[in-house]
């Protein structure tokens, strides 16, 4: 579904990612793991088209070269990024963000029906009834922001979801909720690239790639997780 071919990412002449090639297969749950500062968030942002990085190599999504496409075009094709630190956007309510994003991808909706659907899902995620009319992430705690990202994922149903540390800042119950929801979306066919330290979101990722200092140093199956949990990244 997604192929990264010899990707090098630089910012102001500093090389952050060097010559990474990676394939994420349709329907897979693919983990990207690695120590702090290894370039995980940079890679995630670059896949989505963050304009401040210079990208060499090719990003191929469902056979199409998207390396030079703007982020909104990538989103329309079915890519979604949940950032490690989702920013607040004052003046934009959560409902309008979701409605406009949804309509840009799928076409016009009935606003009342859409509102009801969003409210139902938000309630299931433990977000208050006032959530929809609040500004995006404004005054939300770290954990609430992650739930809001999950809400977007559930409503927008992208083909490929890139989640940058969706488990960070969550308490035990919220982590369980996140895992259950991600497993459900995965069973429905969504493809995932999940950046995580703790590897507690899914019992069975299909693939695990380890990144260090901007390079993929290892790739394999779920077996890698047990070793990491025992010995960390410096084995
Ligand atoms: P990770 O997500 O794996 O912890 P990051 O991708 O956030 O790592 O960062 C990798 C390295 O790139 C870090 O040394 C970080 O300081 C640097 N970096 C990331 N973005 C920028 C930027 N916009 N300007 C300068 N350096 C950056
Ligand atoms: Mg990061």
Quick synopsis:
By secondary structure, the chain is α/β, with parallel strands linked by helices.
Descriptive account of the structure:
- The chain has 7 helices and 12 strands.
- It has 235 residues and is of the alpha/beta class.
- It has a single domain (2-231), classed as 3-Layer(aba) Sandwich (Rossmann fold), CATH 3.40.50.
- Helix 5 (142-156) runs parallel beside helix 6 (172-187).
- The model has no long low-confidence stretch (mean pLDDT 93).
- It binds adenosine-5'-diphosphate and magnesium ion.
List keywords for this structure.
235 residues, alpha/beta, four-stranded antiparallel sheet, Rossmann fold, binds magnesium ion, 7 helices, six-stranded mixed sheet, globular, binds adenosine-5'-diphosphate
Strand content: 25-35%
User: CATH-wise, what's the superfamily?
Assistant: P-loop containing nucleotide triphosphate hydrolases
Count of DSSP-assigned helices: 7
Biggest beta sheet attributes: 6 strands, mixed
- State the CATH topology: Rossmann fold
Uncertain residue segments: none
Task: State the domain count.
Answer: 1
Read across the widest sheet, the strand sequence of neighbours is 6-9-10-3-11-12
Helix content: 25-40%
Q: Give the topology string: H per helix, E per strand.
A: EEEHEEHEEHHEHEHEEEH
CATH class: Alpha Beta
Shape: globular
The secondary structure category is alpha/beta
Radius of gyration: 18 Å
- The average pLDDT value, as a whole number, equals 93
Small ligands present? adenosine-5'-diphosphate, magnesium ion
Strand tally is 12
Secondary structure elements and their pairing?
Elements: E1 2-11, E2 14-24, E3 29-33, H1 40-48, E4 54-61, E5 64-65, H2 71-77, E6 79-82, E7 89-93, H3 94-106, H4 111-124, E8 135-136, H5 142-156, E9 160-164, H6 172-187, E10 191-195, E11 207-212, E12 215-220, H7 223-231
Parallel strand pairs: 3-10, 3-11, 6-9, 9-10
Antiparallel strand pairs: 1-2, 1-4, 4-5, 7-8, 11-12
Helix pairs in contact: 4-5, 5-6
The structure holds adenosine-5'-diphosphate and magnesium ion.
């Amino acid at each position: 579904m997604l192929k990264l071919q010899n990707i090098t990412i630089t910012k102001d002449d500093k090389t952050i990612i060097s010559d990474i090639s990676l394939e994420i297969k349709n329907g897979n749950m693919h983990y990207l793991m690695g120590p702090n500062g290894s370039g995980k968030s940079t890679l995630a942002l670059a896949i989505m088209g963050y304009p401040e990085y210079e990208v060499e190599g090719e990003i191929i999504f469902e056979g199409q070269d998207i390396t030079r496409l703007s982020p909104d075009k990538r989103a329309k094709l079915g890519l979604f990024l949940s950032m490690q630190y989702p920013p607040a956007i004052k003046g934009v309510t959560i409902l309008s963000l979701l409605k406009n994003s949804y309509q840009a991808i799928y076409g016009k909706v009935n606003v009342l029906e859409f509102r009801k659907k969003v409210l139902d899902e938000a309630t299931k995620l433990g977000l208050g009834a006032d959530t929809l009319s609040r500004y995006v992430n404004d005054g939300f705690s770290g954990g609430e922001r992650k739930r809001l990202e999950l809400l977007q994922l559930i409503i927008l149903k992208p083909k490929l979801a890139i989640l940058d540390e969706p488990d960070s800042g969550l308490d035990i119950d919220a982590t369980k909720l996140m895992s259950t929801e991600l497993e459900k979306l995965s069973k429905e066919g969504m493809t995932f690239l999940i950046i995580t330290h703790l590897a507690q979101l899914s019992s069975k990722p299909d693939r695990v790639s380890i990144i260090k200092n901007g390079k993929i140093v290892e790739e394999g199956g779920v077996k890698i997780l047990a070793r990491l949990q025992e010995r960390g990244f410096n084995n």
